[in-house]
Amino acid sequence: MDLSYWLPLFFAGAMGFSLLIYVMLDGYDLGIGMLLPFAEDDEKDVMIASIGPFWDANETWIVLGVGILLIAFPQAHSIVLTSLYLPVTIMLMGLILRGVSFDFRVKAGDDRKAMWNRLFALGSLIASVCQGWMVGAYVTGLTGDTMSTLFATLISLTLPALYIMLGAAWLLIKTEGELFKKAVRWGRMAVLPMGIGLLLVSVATPIVSSAIAEKWFSLPNALGLLPIPLSTGIAYAGLLWIFNSKKILFNGYAWLAFVALAVICVMASIGLGYSLFPDIVIGRMDIWTAASATESLLFTFWGAIVALPAILGYTIFIYRIFRGKATHLSYE
Amino acid sequence: MELDPFMLARMQFAANISFHILFPTITIGLCWVLLYFRVRFTLSGNKAWEYAYFFWVKIFALSFALGVVSGITMSFQFGTNWPGFMERAGNIAGPLLGYEVLTAFFLEASFLGIMLFGKDRVSNRVHLIACGLVALGTSFSAFWILSLNSWMQTPTGYRLEDGVFFVDSWWDVIFNPSFPYRLAHMFNASLLTAAFLIMGVSAWRAIRQVDGPATWQVMRTGALMAAVLAPLQIWIGDLHGLNTLEHQPAKIAAMEGVWETEKGAPLTLFGFPDEAEKTTHFAIKVPKFASLILTHEWDGELKGLNEFENESPPVAPVFWAFRIMVGVGMLMLFIGWWAVWGLFRGREQDFRETRVWLLRALSLMTFSGWIAVLAGWYVTEIGRQPWIVYGVMRTSEVVADHPSGMVLGTLLGYLSLYAFLLVSYIGALRYLSTKPARSLSLLPHYVNEVGVDPVDGISADANNADPAEKGER
């Protein structure tokens, strides 16, 4: 077995996996952040409570994703982060604002709570928009021309819609009563923009990049790839159905909305991974060129195959401990 | 002043890492203190320990959040500011950072949820384990990042091929010569920072007359820690200094302001280093003492800055930062012993009246750990210049070429954000500390004596305390 071939592949997979988990997990808490201004004050506390025990760990997945880029593909890491300097910096400021508001809103005194709530929402919005921009710029090869700027703009509007959907779906799992109904309304409002956005992105990607078009639309590839758009379509139809069916929503099956969104995220990342592979900086560098020395990768590999299952294990353990409807958080 | 993009990149990185280190410094130490409170409560059943935990876990959570978000910034800035470093030293830096994420970040961030909000949902045992895992996670994190930092100071276990680092021995990379000293010095610094933070806040609460029995227990815990750890820290610091002399003599020369190589070098206590004239103005010197401290011989030879043309750090900041660190350290030693002397004798009920000066001193020292830690890091990091990997790779070789306007803009953005957050953090600490201590409820007749509203601060029933006191996030 040729390690210099397989190890970069493993780390590319691990990076994609971490970023996918990040989008699904931090996606819902960023989404809830953006929805915060539309809730009443006591509902805000419940919304925050629904993400309280999880957000720290959720955010760690982006550190792992970017960490793997840094560890396994240092050449690509510096190209990508140097080109994305500004959106990365602004996103970081958003994440900082959001992360600290979480704590400050209940620790800095009641008269400041409203300000920290606003900053929490603002930080979530800034981070989501910037992440969308980064994905868009990255997918179009970091060229910075008009087409890729347009494309980045498009995704920077779509990704927040996806996050809002994830946030609404999370609230369906974690809340009840009036807030639950609000979450249904929010979901209904965001589902269409998200769908249109995803569709436009899917159409635009092959237009922007002929290499990607080639991969998708030549036979027999096109047939083998059919399950990806197909299952995404089914999941989306399911999502529309769930949000419009009182029977499903109010009989304890509302969690299906999150499942449908997870399917969409998984399919989108498989599709994206397929489009990009084997490049890590599109059109410029593939994963083997960008990779670290094999002995360095191997050293990290041993750590990763022990630690990753453990991380997944205790993540599930913690989600189980905090399962059920959210209650007011208490340190005591 | 000319805006050199290289200096701007350095300033931006320094601003971020200086802001970041404040919070891990607290959490690494405070987490073990919290575990200690929990264990004491579990063993003794004394509610005061539990109330101490409830109070400090909020401050821990806040500090942790600030540490996490500013840490995420760091993970991106390696790439945005120093792309050359990762391209050339990525084979070494990458795995060390990777192990930090895999063994530390997830552990602490995940079990933090249980530690903060899980008390009702898990058994006391699982909760204790969760606290222990968070403490371990923070310490693992320190282990890996200090290993990388130490390797940049004293690189071993590598070979260079076309300017790119490759690993020969992971053992030699991780346990490089300065690592054990730096790890011990920093870990101890964290515990000391936590000790003075808990003493300082407790003293402030006593001055404001919102203290309860737990407040004094916490203060005594901090006093014992400080009294033992401050001298220990001076000893470790001395060993660390000897190690630096062996591997980075230019740094020592800058710290001590030794311009020319000499035998029996005097110790400069104070003065104004002048790099243009290569002299220290108005220097107050103790003959032969620098040689004695660093070589443990009266006539030991110290290499001067003259031996490191173009390879020595800027002298004044290193010289000053070193004196600030040592000065604060000595003050910690003195006040730590004073606190033990003051807090373990006499009647606790009278301390507010009889220990006024001690309480004032302690509350002034609340953030002394921050000052010493920042000063210490400036010594070691500015002292490493002009190298990013000591003796092998220069900082100027690896900088990104962003337009200076953009770097200046983001730098100003970060600085204003950090200033705002720092003010908010200290404001929140003040706010949390002004509330009457929960442990007052352990004193049955206390209500009548001081007339504090029983519903607001003293009620034993947690349900009618206000939301912040209950600590929902």
Describe this protein's structure.
- The complex is a heterodimer of chains A (332) and B (473).
- Chain A has helices spanning 3-35, 41-51, 55-72, 74-83, 85-107, 113-139, 146-174, 177-208, 210-217, 221-225, 227-244, 246-249, 256-276, 287-290, 294-321; strands spanning 279-281, 285-286.
- Chain A is mostly helical and 332 residues long.
- In chain A, strand 1 (279-281) and strand 2 (285-286) form a beta hairpin.
- In chain A, helix 3 crosses helix 4 (74-83) and helix 8 (177-208) packs across helix 9 (210-217).
- Chain B has helices at 5-44, 47-81, 83-117, 124-153, 170-174, 179-207, 213-247, 249-256, 289-295, 315-343, 351-354, 356-364, 368-382, 404-434, 446-450, 454-458, 467-470; strands at 158-161, 164-167, 262-263, 267-274, 279-286, 301-302, 387-389, 393-394.
- A two-stranded antiparallel sheet of chain B has the order 1-2. Chain B has a two-stranded antiparallel sheet with strand order 3-6.
- In chain B, strand 7 and strand 8 form a beta hairpin.
- Chains A and B meet through helix 2, helix 3, helix 4, helix 5 and helix 15 of A and helix 2, helix 3, helix 14 and helix 17 of B.
List keywords for this structure.
heterodimer; A: 332 residues; mainly alpha; two-stranded antiparallel ribbon; 82% helix; B: 473 residues; two-stranded antiparallel sheet; 17 helices; globular; disordered C terminus
Chart the SSEs and their pairings.
The complex is a heterodimer of chains A (332) and B (473).
Chain A: H1 3-35, H2 41-51, H3 55-72, H4 74-83, H5 85-107, H6 113-139, H7 146-174, H8 177-208, H9 210-217, H10 221-225, H11 227-244, H12 246-249, H13 256-276, E1 279-281, E2 285-286, H14 287-290, H15 294-321
Antiparallel strand pairs in A: 1-2
Helix pairs in contact in A: 1-3, 1-6, 1-7, 1-13, 1-15, 3-4, 5-6, 6-7, 7-8, 8-9, 8-11, 11-13
Chain B: H1 5-44, H2 47-81, H3 83-117, H4 124-153, E1 158-161, E2 164-167, H5 170-174, H6 179-207, H7 213-247, H8 249-256, E3 262-263, E4 267-274, E5 279-286, H9 289-295, E6 301-302, H10 315-343, H11 351-354, H12 356-364, H13 368-382, E7 387-389, E8 393-394, H14 404-434, H15 446-450, H16 454-458, H17 467-470
